[in-house]
Design goal:
- This protein is an alpha+beta fold.
- It has a domain at about 75-185: Ribosomal Protein S8, Chain: A, domain 1 (2-Layer Sandwich).
- It is built from 5 helices and 5 strands, in the order H-H-E-H-E-H-E-H-E-E.
- The chain has helices spanning about 15-25, 55-70, 90-95, 115-130, 150-160, and strands at about 80-85, 105, 135-140, 165-170, 180-185.
- A 5-stranded mixed sheet has the order 1-4-5-3-2, sandwiched between helices.
- The longest helix has 19 residues, at about 55-70.
- GO terms for molecular function: DNA endonuclease activity.
- Keywords: Endonuclease, Hydrolase, Nuclease.
- This is DNA-nicking endonuclease, Smr domain.
């Protein structure tokens, strides 16, 4: 017959007993375990490059202004009007009255948008190379455009506002084309 085993349930173990048991199991009591030197701290990540916050803000403002120009569509009867900040308001008034004589003229009336844009860009390059100061661009009023928006008029407005060589532009008086044309002052430098 077999004997009954003694009571195998140990008394409650304390945390100090657990630590002593662990050290005995790994041989720390007999000098078999050595303490490792502390690890060097991990390298610090490189500092971020300085951000050009002002340049980024200026670019964001320019993008917002450009989007506003693109989303603001002109109607058939709206006059075109723009002047750079360094141009006096009186010059824009004289342009609106038709006081400047157009030295050259481009008629885009009735052309497809892609053709009109290419012709307008070429025309402005030619005007600059010939040092012309004031030109007239006929874009039409756009009354027969789809969606009742003047496509060419909005194209001319957007493209002229983007160019650095355009000082100012305004729709001329009715005798010179009214809201179907625009007088443009160009930088001859």
């Amino acid at each position: 017959m077999r004997k009954a085993p003694p009571d195998a349930t140990p008394p409650e173990a304390t945390p100090a007993d657990d630590a002593a048991l662990f050290r005995a199991a790994i041989g720390a009591d007999r000098g078999k375990v050595r303490v490792l030197p502390p690890a060097p701290p991990p390298p610090t990540p490189p500092r971020p490059r300085p951000a050009a916050r002002m340049a980024r803000r200026d670019e964001d403002e320019a993008r917002a202004e450009f989007r506003q120009v693109l989303t603001r569509a002109l109607d058939a009867g709206d006059p075109l009007s723009y002047r750079r900040d360094d141009i006096a308001p009186r010059i824009l008034k004289k342009l609106a009255r038709g006081d400047y004589a157009a030295q050259e003229e481009l008629d885009l009336h009735g052309l497809p948008v892609q053709t009109a844009e290419a012709l307008l860009r070429q025309f402005l390059r030619d005007c600059r190379s010939h040092r012309l100061y004031c030109v007239r661009i006929i874009h039409g009023k756009g009354r027969h455009s789809e969606d009742r928006l003047p496509v060419l008029k909005n194209l001319v407005d957007r493209l002229l506002r983007q160019r650095a060589d355009v000082l100012a532009f305004h729709s001329p008086p009715p005798a010179q084309g009214g809201t179907g044309a625009v007088l443009v002052l160009l930088d001859t430098r």
